[in-house]
Amino acid sequence: MIPELGQLALVLALLLALAQGVLPILGAWRGNRALMALARPAAAGQAVFVGTAFMLLVWAFLQFDFSVRYVADNSNLALPWYYRIAAVWGAHEGSMLLWVAILDVWTVALIALSRSLPEPFLARVVGVLGLIAAGFLAFILFTSNPFERLLPMPADGGDLNPVLQDPGMTFHPPVIYMGYVGFSVAFAFAIAGLLGGELEQAWVRWSRPWTNVAWGFLSAGIVAGSWWAYAELGWGGWWFWDPVENASFMPWLVGAALVHAQAVTEKRGSLRAWTILLSIFAFSLSLLGTFLVRSGVLTSVHAFASDPRRGLFILCFLAVVVGGSLLLYALRAPKVAGGKPFGAVSRESAVLVGNLMLAVAAAMVLLGTLFPLVGDALDLGKVSVGPPYFGFLFTLLMLPVVVLLPFGPFLRWGGAGDTGLLRSVLLRVAVAAVAGAVVAAFLVGGQPKAIAGTAGAAWVGVGTLLYVYKRWREMPRGRRYPAEMAGMLLAHFGVGVFLVGVLLSESLSVTRDVRMAPGDEQAIGAYRFRFDGVHATRGPNWHAEQGTVTVLKDGRTVAVMHPQKRTYLRGQVQTESAIDPGVTRDLYVALGEPMDAGNLEGAWALRLYEKPFVRWIWAGGLLMMLGGFASAADRRFRARRTAGAAQPEAAPAAAIARESRA
Amino acid sequence: MHAPFRLLACVLLLAAGLAAAQAIDPLPFRDRAEEVRFQNLTRQLRCLVCQNENLADSNADLARDLRHEVFGLMRQGKSDDEIKQYLVDRYSRFVLYDPPLDRGTVLLWFGPALILLAGGAVVWLTIRRRSRAAPAAATAPTDNGDDW
Amino acid sequence: MSRLVPLFAFLLLVALFGFGIWWNTGHDQREVPSPLIGKPAPAYALPHLDDPSRTLAKADMLGKPYLLNVFASWCVACGDEHPVLMAEGRSLGIPLVGYDYKDDPADAKAWLAQHGNPYDLVIADREGRTAIDFGVYGAPESFLIDARGVIRYKRIGPFTPEVIEKELKPRIAALRKEAP
């Protein structure tokens, strides 16, 4: 009964989504207030039904309802309750439901927080979101129904993919979807702006906080995924340029460009068409990621069964949504460059160059990811495109961005501003970079990557701090760091931290595969790893061989580590690496196999790592996430809203007036 | 998302009863330099069984055989390029994660440069047009120091 | 006009994806075509499975085309292919040489005893060393080798009756024609 209710809820949600997608847009077009007024209730109702379906699926998992195929495939009686909840999004069907549910979270938040938007504009925005929801709900109902029955009902189910049975991993999909799907809001704003044709600058202001929050979530999601790959896979790597990772990285790059372009458009009126285009791209790439991951067109060692029907459905949906919006863009994008003029050396130019590099980097990632397919299409033979390609070109393309980064805040809108100031900044960051390089060269010897990393981090970090200092000195208390600026500073500083993490850990990491009998010691750097043998252990739904490795430095015990080799109920084997985290280095141990098969008491194969500064990679990513969140909290984005709430009718007019004054 | 699934196919292969080998594979390296060379080389080679893994990290049985083959070739004094060619001769260019520049990969390697050139031209034109429109006075905006 | 550029670029992408979906209905993505086709088969000398004291070398097989079929008792897909070879192997009209890949000889013998032996001769590559020269990356795989010892065709994955009919038999017929 419950699954049928879930299905019914999805059908009702689809109908409401269609109403939400069609009627308000029609109303905004014809000036029909009654139709426009349908936007909120239709969206709210749609969200309620999707939420109901989602909760019913959760319930089916909690109740071990193996008569539901999806539940039977992805859980079993021994799976702990928290992983049964995570199993809801553990495979294709449920994760699509999560996608729509999160879209509704954004939609409801938008409705709740945008009471002051002009009615026709809000109607269009909510309508666009409704059309997207309708597409996905149709996709779920017609090709990927999570409530499909399985008869006869099995006594026990399969298992949740064991790689998902990790506390960090359970949160990765919802967080990264918050990012992916969050770009739908900026997208809807852009489309609504194109449809309406008015208030070009105003809609950018309204959409900015949404874009920044979405980008913050996407940063967090990517960090979580990268952290998980590092901690779980036992390879000590944190990024593999896998198609699946690239699918999340492309919208992130475009989102980073969009965050900056929106600032220019909102404040100066320039780059309007480009901002619209980026809004479309960011969301399109999110959709594209969904397509790549689920259609099976790329070789990705991936559990989502590739069903050509699903691929075709998403492709058609993609063609309609993205093709339609690009057509709309071609027809209605502002033809004349609006906004205030700017000089060749100005903050606008700097943002433009940074935008160019980020966009080209995203295009490069897209090209590299799709090239094997191009190879098939043009009969060029099977080609592999891997980390050496992406790493090399990405470094080249990001170099100008890193070089420009410290100067952005010091540049003025419209022109260079105080060129003496810029020169002194250049001098100081250059000194900092050289000092960093010298110190690094002194400490680590001739490791070019490590030296470059330290120099680059000093360049960016000191540049950012110089601006912090400038504001501190020049501005009165309380006005020094508005939230938007604080967000920018956090994110820029995060870039510096990230550089340290990437380049130092890449160049200074030590990896060793060793054979160790109990009592054996291996030295890595200043650390001595002592293997103390293996014993059996078990968890709720797995059993494992667990090694004990004691790490000593200068004769003192630094860490006692327990790497495991787990076997789950359905026979899936999963390594659980042991990590001793630290600010300047991680120690990392993965357990392999016994050297003589079956002799658990004897020697084992182990992989030992020392990874200097690896944690700074994620710290940098988290700073960028904080930057996104902080800047969205700026009072400027809220002030109008409270004013508008007091007198809803006057709000649009006031907004227009403010834009024309700005 | 779904980096998590990259391993699954291989996990399943192992579970399905293929002889379980391990990516953790201690080899008798002469010295640290040889070990680092081996690690760097095997990281650039793609495993044909678990196709989204490199030779260094793959659990597949074949990956272990090929690691040992690479090690043997290193010991015979073969250069990195010779070892790569040895594998390409047997398994095709697919094994190279770093695709060599040839007629088939021109677009791959120079495509980003083309896009950059085109985009750069547009940016340059934009900046030139907009700065022409800007009278010199525009460099002194109504800036109260809080132009954020 | 320039406003249409993104749309055109996107339409190209859509075409590429459409191609990808279509391509995947007819191809196994994991299949990596062998560079050895049209090239001389690597020199090999491997012991017979049932009598390790005797070896089969490439030179022994020169002068007549044959099909080299890589299999193993641990290989699940080989179990699917086996009945097809049992049924069709004789009708090929060329020798069928089994190549037992990374297998315990006892297991392989038991497997053949249980399921039947379609091969004229079985050689064993226990370490899988020679298989690397052949570019084997899984089982089953099959090589059609001509009278001069050149690899003419490779099948990756199990033979099905359709594949034998459509891909293998025409090639064998062609080989017969070019033989003196």
TrEMBL record, chain A:
Keyword Cell membrane: yes
Any Gene Ontology biological process: cytochrome complex assembly
GO MF, one example: heme binding
Keyword terms: Cell inner membrane, Cell membrane, Cytochrome c-type biogenesis, Membrane, Transmembrane, Transmembrane helix
Membrane topology: Multi-pass membrane protein
Keyword Nucleus part of the UniProt annotation: no
Cytochrome c assembly protein domain mapped to chain residues: 89-295
GO cellular-component term (any): plasma membrane
Compartments, as annotated in UniProt: Cell inner membrane
Positions of transmembrane segments: 43-62, 97-114, 121-142, 175-197, 209-229, 249-266, 273-292, 312-331, 352-374, 389-413, 425-444, 450-469, 481-504, 613-633
Domain Cytochrome c-type biogenesis protein CcmF C-terminal per the UniProt entry, residue ranges: 315-635
Pfam families listed in its UniProt record: CcmF_C (PF16327), Cytochrom_C_asm (PF01578)
Subcellular location, principal: membrane
UniProt-listed InterPro entries: CcmF_C, Cyt_c_assembly, Cyt_c_biogenesis, Cyt_c_biogenesis_CcmF
Entry function: Required for the biogenesis of c-type cytochromes. Possible subunit of a heme lyase.
Family: Belongs to the CcmF/CycK/Ccl1/NrfE/CcsA family.
Full protein name: Cytochrome c-type biogenesis protein CcmF
Automatic annotation (TrEMBL), chain B:
Keyword Lipid metabolism listed: no
Pfam families: CcmH
Lineage top rank: taxon: Bacteria
GO MF, any single term: metal ion binding
Signal peptide: 1-21
Any single Gene Ontology cellular-component annotation: plasma membrane
Keywords: Cytochrome c-type biogenesis, Heme, Iron, Membrane, Metal-binding, Signal, Transmembrane, Transmembrane helix
Domain CcmH/CycL/Ccl2/NrfF N-terminal intervals: 11-138
BP-aspect Gene Ontology terms: cytochrome complex assembly
Regions that span the bilayer: 106-127
InterPro entries the UniProt entry points to: C-type_cytochrome_biogenesis (IPR051263), CcmH/CycL/Ccl2/NrfF_N (IPR005616), CcmH/CycL/NrfF/Ccl2_sf (IPR038297)
Function as written in the Swiss-Prot or TrEMBL entry: Possible subunit of a heme lyase.
Family: Belongs to the CcmH/CycL/Ccl2/NrfF family.
Official protein name in the record: Cytochrome c-type biogenesis protein
Automatic annotation (TrEMBL), chain C:
Domain (Thioredoxin): residue spans on this chain: 35-177
GO molecular function ontology, one term from the record: disulfide oxidoreductase activity
UniProt record similarity statement: Belongs to the thioredoxin family. DsbE subfamily.
Superkingdom classification of source: Bacteria
Spans traversing the lipid bilayer: none
Record PROSITE patterns: THIOREDOXIN_1, THIOREDOXIN_2
Localization: Cell inner membrane
Originating organism: Fulvimonas soli
Official protein name in the record: Cytochrome c biogenesis protein CcmG/thiol:disulfide interchange protein DsbE
One cellular component (GO) term of this entry: outer membrane-bounded periplasmic space
Coiled coil: none
Chief localisation class: membrane
Record's keyword terms, sorted: Cytochrome c-type biogenesis, Disulfide bond, Redox-active center
GO annotation, biological process: cytochrome complex assembly
Membrane topology: Single-pass membrane protein
